[in-house]
Amino acid sequence: MTFTQITLQLLSGFGTTLLLFVLTLVFSLPLGLAVCAGSMSRFKPLRFLTRGFVWVIRGTPLMLQLFVVFYVPGMLLNWPIFASLRHGRFIAALLAFVINYACYFSEIYRGGIESVSQGQYEASAVLGLTKGQTFFHIVLPQVIKRIVPPIGNEVITLVKDTSLARVIAVVDIIMEAETILSLHALIWPLFYTGVFFLVFNGIVSFSLRKLEQRLDYYKI
Amino acid sequence: MAFFEVTDLHKSFGNKEVLKGVSLTLDKGQIMAVIGDSGNGKTTFLRCLNFLTEADTGTISINGETIFDANIPLKPSELRKKRMKMGLVFQSYNLFPQYTVLKNTYLAANLLVKEEASAYAKTLTNASLSEKRRLVSDFKKKRKAENVENAKQLIGSMGLDDESDKYPCQLSGGQSQRAAIARALMLSPEILCFDEPTSALDPKLTAEVLNVIKALKEEGRTMIVVTHEMSFAASCADKIVFFRDGKVVEQGGPEILTDPETADLKDFLQLNKE
C-alpha cells in the first residue's frame, strides 16, 4: 500500500469520526440546555431525577455507556434494534455520545447561569422586562461569554472521545488503521492517525480562540 | 391625598421583622432623603417600593392609584405595568455589560414596542391584512427610532455624549451611575428611587452624581434617595425620613438635621459628625 492509499483509507474512517463529532455537538448542545433547565427546576422531583441522571452519566465511563446503549435494547426487549439497522452501530454511538455530552454541557450551562449576578435580574425586573426577555436579552449573552472556554475544553475532548465508538464496532479512523495493521502488517498508519486528530483539534482550538476574541469586546 | 403615599408597610424575613409599619407621603417634584444606619430597613423599604421584595402588608399609591396592595395579588403582566411607575438606580449600577451605554438605555423601551404594536394593531379594524402588517411594521420602526433618539437625549443630558457607544467596562464609576440614571429615566417613572447611589464613589465622582440628581430636581422629578451624604440631604432634600429599627422614627423638612426632636436622630447625627 502506498502512503496516498493509506491516507485515503484513514480519511474515510476519519469521516465517520467527524460526522460523529459534528452530530454529537448539534444534538447535545441544545439538549444540554434542557437538562440544565431540569437540574435547576423548582419542581423538586424533576430536579432530583435530572441531577441523579447527570450523576450516573458523569460517574460512569463513556465506554460502558456505549455498551449499555448498544446491547440493552436487545437484551431487555429482545429486539436488537441497533444491530439490525443499517447504520445502527453509528446511531447507538451517537445516542450514547449525545446523552453523555448533554450532561456535561448542562453542568457548564448551570455554572454559567448561576454566575450571572442577582443585580442583573433585579435591574431587568425594575425595567419591566419579562422573564423570557431577561433570559434571552440579558442573561444568555453573558452565559455564552462565560461558557465558551469550558465548552471548548469539552469539544476538544469530544474529538478524541469519538475513537471510543469502535468498542461497538463503529469503523472510525483508528479501526481503519488496525485493519491495515492486520492485513498488511504495517504499524505506522496506527500512529499516523494521531496527525489527523492533531490537525483537526488545531483547527477547533483556533476557531474557539477566534470566538473568544469576538466576545472580548466587553467584560463582565 | 398626597401624590405618593405609603401606608403601614411590614416585611419579615423568617422571624426577623425588617419593616415594622412604615407610612409616609411625598409631594410631586420633591426629593425625599432616607437616612439611618445600615441594617435598619432603608434598603428593604426601597426594594418594597420597586417590588423587588414583596411587602407582607401595606399599600403603595401614586396619584391616587394603588400600585401595590399586599391583600390583592397581581398577575405578572399587571405587576410589570405598575412597577414601571417606579424607577430604581442601584448602588452597584447593574448596567448590562454586553450592551453599549446607548443600548442599555433604550433596550427596555424597545422591548415594550412589541406590546405597543399589538395594541396598535387592534385599533386597525378597517385595514386589510397586508395593509395592517405594513402599518404595524412601520409603527414598530418609528417607535424604535423614537426610543433611540430619546435615549440619546437622555444620555446627553447626563453629560455622556462621548460615552454613548462605550461598554460599561470602559466607564468610570460616576459615568456608570449617570448611565444607570439615564436608563432608569427612559421609561419616565413617576418616582425615581436611588439606593445609596454614591457609596461606591470617591468624593469627586459623588459630587458629579449628586449634581445630576439636583438637575433632575430642577426638571420637577420626584425622587427618593437612600443616602449617607448628610450634606446632600441637608441641601437638596425637601423631606428627610430617618429610619431606625424598621420604623420611621422622625421625619420632616431639612431642619430636622440641625434641630432633631428625637434622641435617636440626635444620636445618629452626632455619630455621623465624628
Major sheet strand order of chain B? 6-7-8-3-9-10
Number of domains of chain A: 1
Largest sheet of chain A: none
- Secondary structure category of chain B: alpha/beta
Compute the number of helices of chain B.
8
Provide tags for this entry.
heterodimer; A: 220 residues; mainly alpha; MetI-like fold; B: 274 residues; alpha/beta; Rossmann fold; 2 domains; six-stranded mixed β-sheet; 8 helices; 10 strands; 42% helix; globular
Give a structural overview:
- The complex is a heterodimer of chains A (220) and B (274).
- With 220 residues, chain A is mainly alpha-helical.
- Chain A is built from nine helices and no strands.
- Chain A has helices at residues 3-39, 44-59, 62-76, 81-84, 88-114, 118-126, 131-161, 173-184, 188-214.
- Chain A starts with a helix and ends in a 6-residue tail after the last helix.
- Chain B folds into two domains: 4-95 and 190-273, 3-Layer(aba) Sandwich (Rossmann fold), CATH 3.40.50.300; 96-170, no CATH class.
- Chain B is α/β, with parallel strands linked by helices.
- Chain B is globular.
- Chain B starts with a strand and ends with a helix.
- Chain B contains eight helices and ten strands.
- The chains are: A mainly alpha (220), B alpha/beta (274).
- Chain A binds chain B through residues 117, 119-120, 122-123, 125-131, 133, 137-138, 141-142, 145, 217-220, and chain B through 50-52, 76, 80-81, 83-84, 86-88, 90, 92, 94-98, 107-108, 111-112, 167-169, 183-184, 187.
